[in-house]
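hey
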């Protein structure tokens, strides 16, 4: 047995004795510190399941982060230190860090000694004067996910990526880098073992998953110190929650942002925006949001309005509001360099001196949409506050949300597409030593800080309204401020398929509110079939926005004639019916960080053991734990394809049929996207509305799909304000049990929590999969009658709202 003790003076002495050449000291009782040669190493545990490893050369590194708050970064646990032959073990009660003090090689294991992440043999860490390189072992049975919106397959294995926020218009199937830098990966092997690795480094960095070196994960950055967290847990969900603990959760979205959104670069006039709204309503296409892209502005100057084309923005906002639509305005960060032209954003920004600088102290000027432009220094609190104030007028008009584009930042007419690396930013923020920082260090966080300024500004301008911000660029933790989309994709089947991989990986990287441009942004006009299929899949994505570029034929829902429009409408309508389920997922996400859109393996890690390509589920995704969406892996092909469900007994969402087999052959049909429901799911649905701003009329539907682990819950609130934080919400758990023959069911409605008033007075309970010959139903002992639909094997009952605990029984 290794001798063990808590780290303190005693442990230090012990270790000191062991490796006399390496002076050791305990900086505090809970951080293990070691200096060896030029290298300074610190190991701490921020939580039982999360260790933090920091290494730097020559000096003790600054403890600062744009992603992890100082509160969370603190070492919260005492490491249990022991020595075992030549290794030092630092343990929490969930994991052990084994350090070889001679080589500084690190191996992290679980309590059973199974390796989660280990340094590769040979030189595992190398500093090169500026940055560093690390090498870790990649077991052959492991798969890797995360890194945000990267192209390529879902599994990152055998790929290599750079993290450097880049405006990549019309990116290809493998283009890299793209708009966001999220240095977090989830590793999962075919025994179900998983770990997370978050490297908190904002410099240009890379992750190479065995591409340049077989079975070796190479990670490095051009600057900064080594600062990474490794997390463990029972399965991938635990890893994602641990990452959420580190970098924060997305705040609950306004519900309208989960509705259908229509956008275009650009609707050119007020009349055109109005006519899009009118067509949506006339054609009964449910929708919540219209966007205005850069052309509403005067000469592309942010925070200006072209009053020729948009003579009365105020009237437009209120017209749209009357149609239950929210308006989202683009507001790019590049402020026109327009001195002496009565352009207030420039004048006031210049007066407060908040733009980023050239090394000689002058404002950096780069060309973007307005021509010469200057760039707010979002790492300064004053600049963020100033930025927030720019929105005041729009906020007064009731503009619903704001769109931050180009914030990589994108700069035109230069090969690098961005600012020179020596442009000077200033960091003035809580938890930071005030200091200057080069663009090389700040580039990857610039977009996140832009969206943070927008979000925080909205909270100031409209304090009891949940902000909606959409950003293109971001960094780890950016989910706290904004939703995001995958940028300038193209109208191809390959990009329709790619969208699933990108959105799923973004969700695993903390960004739960994610979407792609439905129909494709760039390229040729999507074929009618492609747009239809894209809308079908998009209806089950978290953010659902049809958007397309300039000089492309129209791409709204109705453009390919009534037959296509009817199919598309049906899918959009289904999303609105499912809104209570989707919104409840959003609320859950605000508490646990689990994404709305998930890979199948998040709920069923065992699929990775089913051979290559994640058991064939790469192209499938789940919406929450209950719906599995299964598009073809060859979306343009008429060939039948195989769908493999996690188990027998799943339900076809559309027909309600209980499936005896887990393996299904699907013959593609244009009007059909296969969707399946977990046996044991309880889903809330509502009568059709044309906008989330409308109150549904009719009963709340509660669909029970008989099966094991049968449960669900209701969550409702006003969808727009923060009153839910003061108790104005409604929450209720529902559970059910059935026997193996599925002819005996009991259902329990828990107590209702919160003060939000239900919009329904009736509940329609629909039981799927009931196999009784007849149905004798009682509610709290009183007999009820239901309707038994033999073909669909559903039993429905209409009940007065169940605002209190209630017990139902159904038997033959
Ligand atoms: O240089 O604002 O990704 O969604 O329509 C192009 C115009 C700038 C890029 C965004 C796209 C948007 C477009 N923008």
């Amino acid at each position: 047995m290794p001798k063990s003790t808590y780290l303190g003076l005693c442990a230090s002495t012990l270790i000191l004795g062991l490796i006399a050449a390496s002076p050791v000291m305990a900086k505090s009782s809970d951080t293990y510190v070691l200096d060896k040669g030029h290298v300074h190493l610190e190991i701490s545990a921020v939580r039982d399941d999360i260790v933090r490893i920091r290494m730097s050369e020559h000096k003790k590194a600054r403890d600062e982060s744009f992603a992890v708050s100082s509160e969370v970064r603190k070492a919260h646990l005492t490491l249990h230190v022991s020595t075992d032959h030549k290794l030092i073990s630092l343990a929490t009660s969930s994991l052990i860090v084994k350090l070889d003090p001679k080589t500084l090689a690190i191996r992290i294991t679980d309590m059973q000694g199974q390796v989660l992440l280990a340094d590769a043999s040979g030189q595992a860490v190398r500093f090169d004067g500026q940055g560093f390189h690390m090498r870790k072992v990649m077991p052959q049975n492991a798969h890797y996910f995360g890194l945000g919106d990267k192209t390529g397959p879902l599994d990152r294995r055998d790929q290599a990526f750079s993290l450097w926020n880049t405006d990549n218009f019309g990116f290809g199937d493998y283009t890299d880098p793209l708009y966001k830098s999220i240095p977090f990966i989830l590793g999962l092997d075919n025994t179900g073992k998983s770990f997370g690795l978050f490297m908190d480094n904002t410099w240009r960095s890379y992750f190479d998953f065995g591409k340049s070196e077989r079975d070796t994960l190479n990670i490095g950055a051009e600057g900064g110190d080594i600062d990474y967290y490794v997390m463990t847990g029972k399965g991938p969900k635990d890893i994602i929650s641990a990452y959420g603990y580190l970098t924060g959760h997305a705040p609950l979205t306004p519900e309208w942002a989960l509705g259908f959104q229509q956008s275009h670069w650009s609707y050119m006039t007020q009349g055109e925006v109005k006519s899009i709204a009118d067509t949506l309503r006339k054609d009964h296409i449910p929708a919540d949001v219209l966007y205005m892209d850069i052309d509403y502005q005067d000469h592309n100057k942010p925070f200006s309005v072209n009053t020729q084309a948009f003579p009365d923005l105020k009237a437009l906002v209120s017209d749209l509001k009357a149609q239950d639509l929210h308006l989202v305005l683009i507001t790019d960060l590049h402020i026109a360099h327009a001195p002496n032209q009565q352009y207030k954003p420039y004048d006031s920004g210049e007066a407060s001196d908040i733009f980023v600088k050239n090394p000689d102290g002058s404002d950096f000027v780069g060309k973007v949409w307005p021509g010469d432009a200057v760039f707010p220094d979002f790492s300064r609190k004053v600049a963020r506050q100033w930025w927030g104030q720019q929105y005041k007028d729009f906020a007064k008009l009731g503009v619903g949300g704001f769109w931050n584009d180009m914030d990589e930042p994108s700069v035109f007419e230069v090969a690098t597409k961005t600012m020179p690396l020596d442009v000077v930013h200033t960091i003035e923020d809580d938890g930071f030593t005030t200091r200057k920082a080069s663009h090389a260090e700040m580039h990857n966080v610039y977009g996140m800080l832009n969206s943070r300024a927008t979000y925080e500004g909205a909270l100031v301008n409209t304090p009891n309204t949940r902000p909606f911000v959409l950003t293109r660029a971001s960094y780890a933790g950016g989910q706290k401020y904004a939703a995001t989309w995958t940028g300038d994709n193209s109208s191809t089947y390959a990009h329709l398929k790619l969208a699933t991989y990108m959105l799923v990986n973004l969700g695993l990287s903390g960004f739960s509110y994610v979407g792609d441009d439905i129909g494709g942004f760039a390229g040729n006009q999507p074929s009618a079939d492609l747009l239809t299929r894209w809308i079908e899949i998009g209806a089950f994505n978290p953010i659902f926005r049809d958007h397309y570029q300039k000089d492309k034929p129209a791409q709204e829902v109705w453009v390919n004639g009534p037959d296509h429009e009817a199919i598309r409408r049906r899918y959009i309508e289904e999303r609105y019916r499912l809104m209570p389920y989707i919104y409840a997922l959003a609320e859950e996400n605000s508490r646990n960080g689990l994404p709305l859109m998930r890979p199948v393996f998040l709920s069923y890690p065992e699929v990775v053991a089913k051979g290559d390509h994640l058991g064939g589920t790469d192209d499938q995704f789940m919406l929450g734990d209950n719906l599995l969406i299964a598009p073809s892996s060859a979306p343009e092909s008429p060939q039948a394809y195989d769908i493999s469900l996690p188990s027998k007994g799943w339900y076809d969402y559309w027909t309600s049929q209980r499936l005896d087999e887990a393996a299904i052959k699907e013959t593609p049909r244009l009007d059909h996207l296969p969707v399946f429901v977990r046996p044991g799911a309880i889903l809330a649905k509502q009568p059709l509305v044309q906008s989330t701003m409308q109150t549904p009329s009719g009963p709340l539907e509660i669909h029970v799909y008989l099966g094991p682990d049968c449960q669900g819950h209701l969550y409702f609130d006003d969808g727009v304000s923060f009153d839910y934080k003061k108790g104005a919400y409604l929450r209720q758990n529902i559970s059910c049990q059935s026997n193996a023959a599925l002819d005996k069911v009991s259902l329990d409605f828990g107590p209702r929590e919160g003060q939000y008033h239900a919009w329904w007075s009736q509940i329609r309970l629909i039981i799927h999969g009931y196999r009784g010959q007849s149905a004798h139903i009682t509610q709290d002992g009183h007999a009820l009658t239901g309707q038994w639909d033999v073909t669909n094997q559903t039993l429905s009952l209409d009940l007065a709202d169940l605002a209190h605990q209630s017990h139902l029984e159904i038997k033959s």
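The chain has three domains: 5-247, 255-332+384-408+443-587, 698-811. The chain has 15 helices and 53 strands.
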